[in-house]
Design goal:
Layout lengths: L3 E7 L9 H13 L3 E7 L7 H10 L4 E6 L6 H17 L4 E4 L9 H14 L4
Parallel strand pairs: 1-2, 1-3, 3-4
């Protein structure tokens, strides 16, 4: 049991293959921080919901849960939907602390890592 949990929260898709990168990210996060329980969640179109992911983490003993919005930028889903969903989860689980982390483009080092990966993939090559 872990007192810390992480939810990787993404939009969702009708295509089940769409979730594979998020599942790989969850595995990578869990490997880097074995002391935290990691779950994925989706805003719409596929399970589990954020509510379900938080409930799973609470059932595993998590009392401090960070929610990483796996969105590139903070649009309406992050600025409007996520705070509402977090408030609902907090109401359902008194005593559990839920914290929203920044979107991907605002995380330290992400822009540099993406720029480097793009260049290594051939974006910086001359024709």
């Amino acid at each position: 049991m872990s007192s810390r949990g992480i939810v990787l929260f993404a939009h969702g898709s009708r295509d089940p293959q769409w979730a594979r990168p998020l599942e790989r990210l969850a595995q990578a996060v869990g490997a880097r921080d074995p002391g935290a329980a990691v779950e994925t969640a989706f805003l719409e179109l596929m399970p589990p919901t954020l509510e379900t992911a938080v409930a799973r983490l609470v059932a595993r003993g998590a009392t401090d849960i960070a929610v990483l919005p796996v969105f590139w930028a903070a649009g309406g889903h992050v600025t409007r939907d996520l705070p509402r969903l977090l408030a609902q989860a907090e109401a359902a689980h008194p005593g559990v602390r839920l914290t929203a982390l920044p979107v991907l483009s605002e995380l330290p080092g992400v822009l540099d890592a993406v720029a480097q990966a793009a260049l290594q993939s051939g974006a910086g090559r001359s024709p």
